[in-house]
Amino acid sequence: MFSYLVCTICHEKKPVDAFHGRSRQTPTGLREYRSRQCKACEHAARNAYNHTEAGKQYLARQKLALETDPERRARYEAYQTSEAAQASRREYEKSDKGKARMERFLLSEKGEKYRTEKWRRHRVKRADLIEQSGDTLAPWQWRKILRAYRHACAYCASTYGPMEPDHVVPVTKGGANIKENIVPACHACNQKKGDETGWIPNPPSLVLKW
């Protein structure tokens, strides 16, 4: 089995993973093989074709068939909810191309609306979870935490701007809204952390005595 193949379009030597797998039914059985064009060249050629008049007509026919054929629509929806489709989307989102596309989308007007709505839903969900837990952080406790950290971020030690209360274990991941789970964080760190786990805050400069 070859570990490298040469693309017939760009003529570059690339690992076999850079080429799509294919299968063909032959008189002797199912034959599996690799495309001779790398994924990048195939995508570029397909994208160029889709912008031609013939390509636009082909896409329109495919869309119409998807809307009018219930069986085809059912197969499409079944695949979109399958584990294979979700794994493929996760892999694409982690790729450089997926990240670049998401950055372009977030800079657009539609992306700005998406980001605003996403954070609104997050804040509502977070507030509901705090209310359901019944845990409360008193204002005097927050002031004491700030003094213990000398009004600095618990993650990057920055003193720029007002500090925001951050849950070390996010509320959306089961964290409690209590003094032991809250540290001050600058706006940049708080936004970057989001609801991620694994962030370890620095110890306070002063000993907290309750």
- The CATH architecture term of the largest domain is Orthogonal Bundle
What's the multimeric state? Answer: single chain
Number of helices, where a helix is a run of at least 4 consecutive DSSP H or I residues? 8
Biggest sheet: strand arrangement: 1-2
* SS class: alpha+beta
CATH class of the largest domain: Mainly Alpha
Beginning-to-end CA distance, first to last residue? 67 Å
Rg: 26 Å
Approximate shape: elongated
Largest sheet: 2 strands, antiparallel
Annotated CATH topology of the largest domain: DNA Binding (I), subunit A
What fraction strand? 15-25%
How many domains comprise the coordinates?
3
Number of strands: 6
Q: Can you tag this structure with a few keywords?
A:
210 residues, Wheat Germ Agglutinin (Isolectin 2), domain 1, DNA Binding (I), subunit A, two-stranded antiparallel sheet, two-stranded antiparallel ribbon, 6 strands
Structure description:
The structure is a single chain. This protein is of the alpha+beta class and 210 residues long. It folds into three domains: 1-50, Wheat Germ Agglutinin (Isolectin 2), domain 1, CATH 3.30.60; 82-134, no CATH class; 139-193, DNA Binding (I), subunit A, CATH 1.10.30. It contains eight helices and six strands; from the N terminus they run E-E-E-E-H-H-H-H-H-H-H-E-E-H. A hairpin with a 6-residue loop joins strand 1 (4-6) and strand 2 (13-15). Helix 2 (53-68) crosses helix 3 (70-80) and helix 5 packs across helix 6 (109-133). The model has no long low-confidence stretch (mean pLDDT 89).
